[in-house]
Amino acid sequence: MEGVMVVVAHNERATLRVGDVFLKVDSDQARIDVEVEAMRLAPVPTPEVLWRKPPVLAIAAVPGQALGRLGEPSPASPAAWAAAGAAIRKLHDAPLPPWAGKKLVGLDAELERECAWLVDSGVLPADLVDRNREIAEAAIRPWTPVFMHGDLQVTHIFTDGDEVTGVIDWSEAAPGDPLFDLASLTLGHEECLGDLLAGYGTDVDRDVIRAWWSLRSLLASRWLIEHGFDPSLPGCEFDVLKSRM
């Protein structure tokens, strides 16, 4: 062991890496309950739970490398992205987890509030926010719930060659919108969307995925700023919003 690496940390939770073990410290035990149960139910490769002693969950590292990182070209092959799409489809086809998911009721009000904050605080110009808000509204629509990962960032799917070796960070898993998962994974990697959908294997409304890119970026920006993250870094949320202009 060379030391302890802080993977992510803010006032809600922290993740540390010690050798090949990840230690997740979370004050919300219900969130950890969801993560453990979701990994047990998901029909895709997930990390091994080593032990749990609240507020800490220890899980084993998964082999392979992440599909990519925001702001950097993905090192994964088109076949690896297609394999990720097939894994997500398998998850979405599985029985729904037995707990409630996030509701879209009130999402339009949240969008209005966050857009106003971005403009009033001088964080982003009004025309950029208005254009993305117009695009984002297409994501607020009826949908059939699936077993959704809920936080399927590009760093959360690992592959080795063209095979998915692990999907990590399940604390947001719940019944939800399948296109939210697909949009989360391709945020900032629009060039990989076709390969992902080739593996997902069903007709998907790409305009709704693009709407989720805008909606997710608008809703997340204030939280990221207030928790010490920078959405203005290359390839991150602000670049995603600017690319819609």
UniProtKB/TrEMBL annotation:
Transferase in keyword set: yes
Keywords per UniProt: Transferase
Domain of life assignment: Bacteria
Aminoglycoside phosphotransferase domain mapped to chain residues: 30-212
SUPFAM superfamilies: Protein kinase-like (PK-like) (SSF56112)
InterPro entries: AGP_Transferase, Aminoglycoside_PTrfase, Kinase-like_dom_sf
Molecular function GO labels: transferase activity
UniProt cross-references to PANTHER family, sorted A to Z: AMINOGLYCOSIDE PHOSPHOTRANSFERASE DOMAIN-CONTAINING PROTEIN-RELATED, AMINOGLYCOSIDE PHOSPHOTRANSFERASE-RELATED-RELATED
Protein name: Aminoglycoside phosphotransferase
Organism: Micromonospora deserti
Taxonomy of the source species: Bacteria, Bacillati, Actinomycetota, Actinomycetes, Micromonosporales
